[in-house]
Amino acid sequence: MMDMTRKMIAEFIGTFTLVFLGCGAAVIAGAHDIIGIAGISFAFGFALIGMAYGIGPISGCHINPAVSFAAVVANRMSIPEMIRYWAAQVGGAFVGAIVLLAIVKGKGGGYDLAAGGLGQNGWGEGYLGEYGMVSAFLFELVATFLFVVVILGSTSPGTPAAMAGLAIGITLVVIHLVGIQVTGVSVNPARSIGPAFISTSGQAITQLWLFIVAPMLGAFAAGLMFRAGLLQDKSEVANVAAE
């Protein structure tokens, strides 16, 4: 029980960090094009790299419900453990968004939450590149699939463990460079849920389903490929199943 508590605390802190620093970069520095798309992309990726080495030894640093779901599909995690991870991740995302909101509200002259938002995801008219729903769904599906392939592959037995966090974080940077104009980039349901609800944006909340369904489908496909041994050695699959 104590071990699971430590894992949940780690996942809470990790997801809090990703939302607070990643979305914070978009809201505080990105709004006035101080750091641009590249800066926001690196903020998300570097936040993940830091947490990978900070909490990775404790919880594996999923900080993403889609990653935990993929771990279950790949037979690396139990369903009860996944549900506890989900609770910690969503909780961390909510608190990260709340703290970010408290900070931006202290801006001189006030902060227009309706106009500036909290880095919530979306698509369509008035949202960044104004891409349509099909483009948004396809991007989130494919990007999450590729992201989870990197995560499961770099954390498989026999791979250099010390490099996993760096590989995963760099992949998240590239995903953001490609996709910010399309959806703002989720590939992580918790990252989308927290800012959407705390911003109270009607559009973000009504569009939230896509940022849950598409990442979960992408994660399922990646997890299934690892479970079937298509992306890892058969002996490793047998060892994981035996455990």
Short descriptors:
0% strand, Glycerol uptake facilitator protein, mainly alpha, 243 residues, globular
Describe the protein.
The protein has 243 residues and is mostly helical. It has a single domain (2-109, 119-242), classed as Glycerol uptake facilitator protein (Up-down Bundle), CATH 1.20.1080.10. The chain has helices at residues 2-29, 36-59, 65-73, 79-104, 113-116, 133-154, 161-183, 189-199, 202-206, 210-227, 234-242. Helix 1 (2-29) runs antiparallel to helix 2, helix 1 (2-29) packs parallel to helix 4 (79-104) and helix 4 (79-104) crosses helix 8 (189-199). The protein is globular, with a radius of gyration of 17 Å. The model has no long low-confidence stretch (mean pLDDT 93).
CATH 4th-level superfamily: Glycerol uptake facilitator protein
Unreliable stretches (pLDDT < 50, length at least 5) are none
What Rg is obtained from the alpha carbons, in whole angstroms? Answer: 17 Å
Whole-number count of domains: 1
CATH topology: Glycerol uptake facilitator protein
H/E element order? HHHHHHHHHHH
The overall pLDDT average reads: 93
User: The biggest beta sheet, please?
Assistant: none
